[in-house]
Amino acid sequence: MKENWLFIKTPDHYGNPQIIQLDEDIIDYFDVEKSDEICLVKNENRNEKLSETEHKFINQNRIRFFRKGKIHRVLDDEKSITEDCIFENDYEKLNATETELTETEIQNLKFELNWRGEKIDASFNEILDSPAIQELNKRMNKQGSKILLEKLNETLFLSFYTDIYFEKLIPIKYVDRQKMILYGFPKEPYEINCPIIR
Question: What is the pLDDT of residues 144-153, one digit of tens each?
Fold first, then answer.
């Protein structure tokens, strides 16, 4: 059976979320897009063999690919330098979310999200921005930032949107009425516990 692995975005990665499927030695690449629901759109121009890529399993659920590349730095109007480098791209294996709650019940929960000292009280389907930012957004005809509960196969996600733009997926490992466990973060700990506050 093909396994889905979510590309772990870091702050310097932009664009839609991506997923790879591993099927024995073949890696297929997919963009995650949103219409009425999230779906996978195959990148027909990109596939490769796992055996021909430099990679390492960080644990049974995380694989890291090492890619040769270049960094171009502009020093001033006349000078720039280009350096060879190795990019490290992590992918997290997606597993079925463990829960006895319905999706409607989960969407009614309010939870505390705390990642590396940044803490927010979050709810699904509600604007996350401060009142001042919401006022600015209203003047500029923007919708603001929000989190939706979405599903791909048997995995539930926090889907982050800024205005109408689909930015990030964070998979939910487990959820009940006391806590939510999220995984797929770029640095250790790769998963966090989010207490339910409503």
Answer: 788 889 999 9
Measuring CA to CA, which residue among 54, 159, 155 is closest to residue 145? 159
CA separation for the pair 194, 128 (Å, rounded):
17
Dihedral sign of CA atoms 23, 58, 147, 178 in order: positive
The pLDDT tens digits for 171-185 are: 999 999 999 999 999
**Phi, psi dihedrals of residue 134, rounded to the nearest 5°:** -60, -40
CA distance 154 to 198: 25
Write down the residue that tokens 């990642």 correspond to.
Answer: 115
Distances (CA, A) of 166 to 31, 114, 145: 12, 21, 10
Query: What are the φ/ψ torsions at residue 83 (nearest 5 degrees)?
Result: -125, 140
One-letter identity of residue 130: S
Which residues 6+ apart lie within 8 Å of 20 measured at CB? Answer: 4, 5, 7, 27, 28, 29, 30, 91
Partnered with residue 155 across adjacent β-strands are 152
Domain boundaries, the chain: 3-93, 98-195
User: What is the pTM assigned to this prediction?
Assistant: 0.85
HSE-up (13 A, CA, CB side) for residue 103 = 11
Report the 10 Å Cβ neighbour count for 169. Answer: 23
Instruction: Measure Cα distances from 155 to 2, 67, 85, 103 in Å.
Output: 15, 28, 34, 11
Strand partners, 194: 180
